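Re: How this chain folds, sequence and tokenised backbone to follow
How to read it: Take the token row as a discrete description of the fold.
Start of record: The labelled sequence and token lines come straight after this line.
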Amino acid sequence: MKAAAKSGPASPAAVPAAYKEYLRGDRTDLQWPLRVMNVPQAWGTATGEGVVVATIDSGVDRTVPDLAGRLLPSAYVDPATGGIVTGNRPDEVGHGTHVAGIIVGNNDGRGVTGVAPGAKLLAVNIQTSVEVTTTQVASAITYATAKGARVINLSLGFLDIATTAQTIRPICAAVKAAVSKNVVVVAAAGNDGTGANTPQAPASCPGTISVVAADSSLRPASWSSFDSGVTVAAPGENIYSTVSTNRTPQGFSAESGTSMAAPHVAGLAALLLQQNPRWTPAQVSARLVETATDLPPAGRDPRSGAGLVNAAKALGVSDDAPSPAPSLAVTADAYASRTVGGRDVFDQIMLHWVPDSEAQVTEYQVTRWTAKGKTTTTYPGDTVRALFPNGPAGYQVTASTEDDGEVLSAPVWFPMPDQDATPVYPVTSLKASWARNGSVTVTWANPAKNRDHADEYSILVNGDPVYLAEGLNSLPARYTIPAAKVPEGDLSISFLIGASSNQDVAETSTRLAARVPFSGTAVSAGKGRYRVNLTLAPSRRNQCVKRCSGVGAIVAASGSSSFSRIDSRGAVVVLVSTKPVKGKLTVSVTVPTKPQLSGKAVAVPVA
């Protein structure tokens, strides 16, 4: 098992005050697992008080308000020795903090509430090393046992196959030792139900309570691993809980996995141990099994074990069976609404959601919080996505249903730390000028806001790229387009500046009048004679005080010349006697009555 990738911190300051206030209000309305597990009914009997639950995970963010007063001194894997030492290391990925909120989130009418809000949590951070080993996990189990944990939650796994039997042996040995000392060990079964469905340890270790995931419709999650060793099922899809600000600046997120199912069972185990302090792990497991609500198919089965855990029934306070709780999963992603110069421009946010399969939705409302305020937009009931301007914002979708009232999604913040929404700003003062040799010099000013973000640019002439630079630490302020890359006629010059981190692109354009008034082509009209078709550039045509139609023009080539008149399209057609050089004729045009239309010689390609 490799340690989860680390991400940089996200700035909480980006979260609008009104959105932060909403998040910190009582958000148990977003915690469907509490309802389907009948947890609130159980709190009148036990809250986990006096019970220590340990998490072997990515640590915990000790600054999270919902965990205030719930945390014991933490521990972590010492990268130098590989041993477990007391002390705190930050939760760089948020996983351990999410698990912690599910177990011991405070029941204070603020934020989220854990299954066992009266319990204490001992967080052992095993993701402080580059590679997490089974020996380190085993050491963490032993450490938690020695520190008085009565329940250990393991939302992790290592492949349990013949080739790794020796590798996982330390974990199973540590589980066995912990169980012998009256510690309940709960482990996630895995998320490979649609793949090879390979068993994993510690869920496969004897004595462990193996937990699979169920969704809000009380069905086993399709992706949840399964086998005959599964003990029970618990909510594991779209679970709203606390996370570190390294995961999202809003401090909460909805996650899915058996990693989320296991802590629901660990929290329930803490309730049972407060009620029955002398119970053994076997007694706790038996109680969970005998009071679980059977899920289809009937009887114990590999997909859900004995069924969905029922907190109220396990504590003997109610026989109510759990009922499905409609839910709404929402995701936000960067969206490219257009392409510039062959590159996608990610200038919008796509919010997309998955309606509950049982809910009859009549309409959706999308609430969006930004620094400018809060807005709400209504959509028809068959809508599944919506587009919004790019930039930091919080979103929540509310589904109005015929039978279940309003169904709220978990709020989602965009961007997450791995979703860079930093905009690229277009360059300013873009100018283009001709040089004597026919090259074009382009100059610009790069806004200071692009510093340390924009690292590439390209220049297009009449829509065709003529230059591309990538991976720059700093952008230059000028570039000269070689004459060979400059087409005849008027020029439309576009400057694209971008960021490789999120593929955002900003465009600035300018125009440059043609250096030579006329351009065109020539075709053979017999031996030594050519029909020359010339056209005024639009910018030069605009220089005519009156219409150019009928104005006389003299076209000269190699000593011969011909007279013609400019037609209504700005074109002049003549026959000249000359000899092409390298497939081109060199001609010059003189317009006696309009000297501004006379210009330098132009090379006309012979068709």
The first helix runs from residue 17 to 24. Confidence is low (pLDDT under 50) at residues 1-13. The longest strand covers residues 329-340. Residues 134 and 168 are 6 Å apart (CA to CA).
